């Protein structure tokens, strides 16, 4: 961790009007999508995760969150499948805050702690539903190879998920690759107590 931080948290009292509006919309969409299973604010009420670095580019902040919401709220995947895709990305990027938040979200949508821990380390252990296994394995391959998928795996994915879902899945993977880059560059750490808000 850099000292001082690469992107020091911007306290609520120092936010511009544009930053305040972006933060408010981001928080509303994050809570609508994921609930409150993880910490979104630091003890001094600054936003955590990718949102801290995005505060430095407020004009890109709201479009980023809106795009993320559009991609993640697709009815093509269950919340469990969405989180398995996200954990597959975490297994590759090792983005600490994304891993922290999405392990909690995954448990809140019904995955077991054992399934979550395995998925976060690149293993599809304990996934009994074929569709969940396919989502996870495809997501892991996409993340590891920057979107390239072997023909055999593509055929399985297209047969089990369908072409529209394959297009949506790569967007989920890409969204979390992007988020992971932000978090890794900013060296965002897990909140000290690691609890939910």
UniProtKB/TrEMBL annotation:
Q: Which residues form the Carboxymuconolactone decarboxylase-like domain?
A: 64-127
- Spell out the molecular function terms from Gene Ontology: peroxiredoxin activity
Which Pfam family name is an example for this entry? Answer: CMD
InterPro entries, alphabetically? AhpD-like, CMD-like
Against PANTHER family, the record matches this protein to: 4-CARBOXYMUCONOLACTONE DECARBOXYLASE FAMILY PROTEIN (AFU_ORTHOLOGUE AFUA_6G11590) (PTHR34846:SF11)
Name of the protein = Carboxymuconolactone decarboxylase-like domain-containing protein
């Amino acid at each position: 961790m850099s000292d001082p931080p690469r992107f020091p948290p911007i306290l609520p009292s120092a936010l511009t009007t544009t930053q305040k509006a972006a933060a408010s919309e981001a928080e509303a969409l994050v809570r609508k999508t994921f609930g409150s299973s993880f910490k979104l604010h630091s003890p001094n009420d600054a936003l955590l995760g990718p949102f801290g670095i995005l505060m430095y580019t407020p004009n890109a902040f709201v479009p980023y969150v809106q795009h993320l919401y559009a991609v993640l709220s697709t009815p093509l995947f269950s919340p469990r499948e969405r989180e398995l895709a996200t954990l597959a990305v975490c297994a590759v990027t090792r983005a600490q805050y994304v891993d922290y938040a999405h392990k909690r979200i995954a448990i809140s949508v019904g995955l077991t702690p054992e399934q979550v821990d395995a998925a976060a380390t690149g293993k599809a252990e304990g996934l009994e539903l074929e569709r969940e296994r396919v989502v996870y394995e495809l997501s892991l391959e996409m993340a590891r190879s920057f979107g390239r998928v072997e023909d055999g795996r593509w055929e399985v994915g297209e047969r089990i998920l369908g072409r529209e879902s394959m297009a949506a899945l790569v967007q989920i993977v890409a969204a979390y690759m992007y988020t992971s880059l932000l978090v890794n560059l900013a060296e965002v750490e897990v909140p000290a107590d690691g609890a939910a808000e």
